[in-house]
Amino acid sequence: MLIFIIIRILKYPVRTAILTGLALAQVGEFSFVLAQEGMTYHLLESNLYNIFLASSIFTMLLTPLILQLAPILANKAVNIAPISADINSFIHLDEILAAGLTSTYFINEDNYHNGETLEQLNLRAKTEATIIAIVRGNRTISNPSAKDTIESNDTLVIIGTHKSVDLAFSLLDGKD
Fold first, then answer.
1. pTM passes above 0.85
2. Class for domain 94-172, per CATH?
3. Where does 24-45 have alpha helices with state H?
4. 118-174 pLDDT tens trace
5. Could you write out the DSSP letters of every residue in 60-103?
6. Handedness of CA 131, 136, 138, 144 (dihedral sign)
7. What do you get for the CA distance between the two ends of the chain, in Å?
8. What are the structural domain ranges in the chain?
């Protein structure tokens, strides 16, 4: 619990704090050394030493299970507690990526949008999909600007949700 609180004070997301707290929950092998030194200097009574020893062994045995369950528990806790998700924190990045789609669209010679700039096409505003690259012959224009034009035989690399990419294809097909 202390680790969780410290991680939250440092402004890390709840999920990160839970995962860190659970990963560091075990007392560990060093506790044996500390307990033995406590006994040597008469800082621990024998019954307290036995309790400390048993809890150390117990947490060491539970650690693999805790580490297996930690992501599940953290996800459930995050879903219970309302939090503002910041993409920079990488909360649920795997889910964000799984919900997305990257696809390609070939611009044929009679495509209605030949000669248009990306600004004129305005694909992102109309569909919420984004053109992240244009492949033109053997050249790739990565992260194209609004001033880049769509030309015959271009291949557009489009990213977005499944729905937004479908909408983008419909728009590019002239079915808007």
1. no
2. alpha beta
3. 30-40
4. 999 999 999 999 999 999 988 999 899 999 999 999 999 998 888 898 999 999 998
5. HHHHHHHHHHHHHHHHHHHHHS-----GGGTTTHHHHHHHEEEE
6. negative
7. 54
8. 2-84, 94-172
